[in-house]
């Protein structure tokens, strides 16, 4: 059945992203204990420019082809050609912007850093378009192989560079090699003979217009704070903020994001039945928040333990930032689910509108936050922004799917109660353990175990259960 097939696909993607994050996290631990926050700050500033250009020129080949009834070789050729042209354009823009960007930020090292980092998105754009056949069939085992091989190769090269005194170049190597190795692996998994053609471009054009505009604004949303901090603060401060922000988004990037990729394909297969789509959206949002909300709150409540244990003493000033930023990313899964259903219903303008609203408020709130409280003020501003944007997500879902805001909130109240119970228990346990000088690894393990048990028990008491079997997947709510 469709639900079980989507579940299997989501399982492979979640497992793939989980393994990738484990590799990334191991790499981060080694690099964080070897390099300084200033090294991370410099690399983050260079990466921000490349990410904005990359996202600005993002071509949603996978999303566009998944929603088509049928595809043939000409579709794949068009996708490959667009990716190649995109790579040329990325290289041209990045090289043209490298020197002015380094001058604005008063750091000549940025010129070469930005130029080398651009090789990552260029190579990723040449991934075999034949990989789309697996996505259309909700089969993502090959995606697991693709991503894992890229991450593992990148980690090995980064370790080699840092252990040989390469400093921040290890971060650059990790970024570039991951994309290059994945591209090579894609042709092994999904053989494709490159051919140049734009004959199927009309099948992409309308979709790409709205999607690319939304991606550009989304990139500015995610990188605006780093641009601002990089221009007005020192590299050490930016490095602490960047690492805290990257760790904070692990739940949404590792679990929810990949799980929603097959969900989008499932939405596409039922998009003619608006009632089914509405019901599927409510189930998907509840499941997404069921996973991400406790993870975000848990990270927030244990940020000091996790930072000291995993990153080391020199990162202690990043812990308060992580505690705040983890809360700021909590509503993201709701937006990710709404984005998936918008794409499935051929309404990419919804994503554009939400990202545009986000950018307007973000520029205002984060600027004020930095003026009033430096990076701590920025972190608090992001919490305020997330709360505000969640209201817009609810409103947009009501308009798109005709599901009331009250119904959406009622869909999530049991998750909110369970997370609150977990937070109270974790806070109480940490208060009791304070001053007893337990090893941080033991204290963190106890807190995680009791918090998870409290969360699960509360959900069970409220009648929430996940049931899979007989061709169906249901989040049962008594």
TrEMBL record:
<keyword id="KW-0812">Transmembrane</keyword>
<protein>
    <submittedName>
        <fullName>PST family polysaccharide transporter</fullName>
    </submittedName>
</protein>
<feature type="transmembrane region" description="Helical">
    <location>
        <begin position="318"/>
        <end position="338"/>
    </location>
</feature>
<feature type="transmembrane region" description="Helical">
    <location>
        <begin position="111"/>
        <end position="132"/>
    </location>
</feature>
<feature type="transmembrane region" description="Helical">
    <location>
        <begin position="411"/>
        <end position="429"/>
    </location>
</feature>
<keyword id="KW-0472">Membrane</keyword>
<feature type="transmembrane region" description="Helical">
    <location>
        <begin position="12"/>
        <end position="32"/>
    </location>
</feature>
<feature type="transmembrane region" description="Helical">
    <location>
        <begin position="38"/>
        <end position="57"/>
    </location>
</feature>
<comment type="similarity">
    <text>Belongs to the polysaccharide synthase family.</text>
</comment>
<feature type="transmembrane region" description="Helical">
    <location>
        <begin position="78"/>
        <end position="99"/>
    </location>
</feature>
<dbReference type="Pfam" id="PF13440">
    <property type="entry name" value="Polysacc_synt_3"/>
</dbReference>
<dbReference type="InterPro" id="IPR050833">
    <property type="entry name" value="Poly_Biosynth_Transport"/>
</dbReference>
<keyword id="KW-1003">Cell membrane</keyword>
<keyword id="KW-1133">Transmembrane helix</keyword>
<feature type="transmembrane region" description="Helical">
    <location>
        <begin position="441"/>
        <end position="468"/>
    </location>
</feature>
<feature type="transmembrane region" description="Helical">
    <location>
        <begin position="287"/>
        <end position="306"/>
    </location>
</feature>
């Amino acid at each position: 059945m469709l639900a079980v097939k989507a579940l299997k696909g989501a399982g492979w993607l979640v497992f793939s992203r989980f393994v990738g994050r484990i590799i990334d996290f191991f790499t981060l631990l080694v690099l964080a204990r070897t390099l300084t926050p200033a090294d991370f700050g410099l690399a983050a500033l260079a990466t921000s420019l490349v990410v904005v250009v990359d996202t600005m020129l993002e071509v949603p080949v996978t999303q566009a082809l998944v929603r088509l009834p049928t595809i043939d070789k000409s579709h794949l050729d068009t996708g490959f050609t667009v990716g190649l042209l995109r790579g040329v354009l990325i290289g041209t823009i990045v090289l043209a912007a490298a020197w002015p960007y380094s001058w604005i930020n008063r750091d000549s090292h940025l010129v070469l850093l930005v130029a080398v980092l651009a090789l990552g998105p260029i190579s990723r754009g040449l991934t075999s378009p034949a990989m789309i056949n697996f996505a259309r069939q909700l089969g993502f085992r090959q995606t697991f192989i693709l991503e894992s091989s890229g991450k593992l190769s990148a980690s090995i090269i980064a370790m080699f560079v840092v252990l040989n005194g390469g400093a921040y170049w290890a971060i650059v190597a990790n970024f570039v090699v991951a994309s290059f190795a994945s591209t090579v692996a894609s042709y092994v998994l999904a053989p494709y003979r490159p051919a140049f053609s734009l004959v199927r471009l009309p099948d992409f054009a309308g979709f790409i217009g709205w999607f690319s505009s939304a991606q550009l604004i989304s990139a500015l949303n995610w990188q605006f704070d780093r641009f601002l901090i990089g221009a007005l603060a020192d590299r050490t401060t930016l490095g602490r903020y960047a690492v805290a922000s990257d760790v904070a988004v692990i739940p949404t990037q590792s679990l929810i994001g990949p799980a929603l990729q097959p969900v989008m394909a499932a939405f596409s297969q039922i998009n003619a039945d608006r009632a089914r789509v509405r019901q599927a959206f409510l189930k998907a949002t509840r499941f997404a928040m069921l996973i991400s909300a406790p993870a975000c709150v848990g990270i927030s409540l244990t940020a000091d333990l996790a930072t000291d244990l995993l990153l080391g003493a020199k990162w202690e000033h990043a812990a308060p930032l992580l505690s705040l930023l983890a809360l700021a990313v909590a509503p993201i899964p709701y937006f990710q689910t709404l984005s998936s259903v918008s794409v499935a219903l051929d309404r990419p303008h919804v994503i554009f509108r939400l990202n545009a609203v986000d950018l307007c408020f973000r520029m205002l709130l984060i600027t004020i936050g930095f003026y009033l409280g430096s990076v701590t003020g920025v972190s608090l501003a992001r919490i305020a922004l997330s709360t505000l944007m969640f209201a817009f997500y609810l409103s947009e879902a009501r308009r798109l799917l005709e599901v009331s805001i009250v119904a959406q909130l009622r869909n999530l109240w049991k998750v909110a109660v369970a997370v609150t119970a977990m937070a109270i228990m974790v806070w109480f346990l940490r208060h009791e353990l304070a001053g007893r000088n337990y090893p941080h690894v033991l204290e963190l393990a106890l807190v995680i175990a009791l918090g998870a048990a409290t969360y699960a028990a509360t959900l069970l008491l409220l009648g929430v259960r996940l049931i899979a079997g007989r061709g169906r997947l249901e989040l049962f709510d008594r």
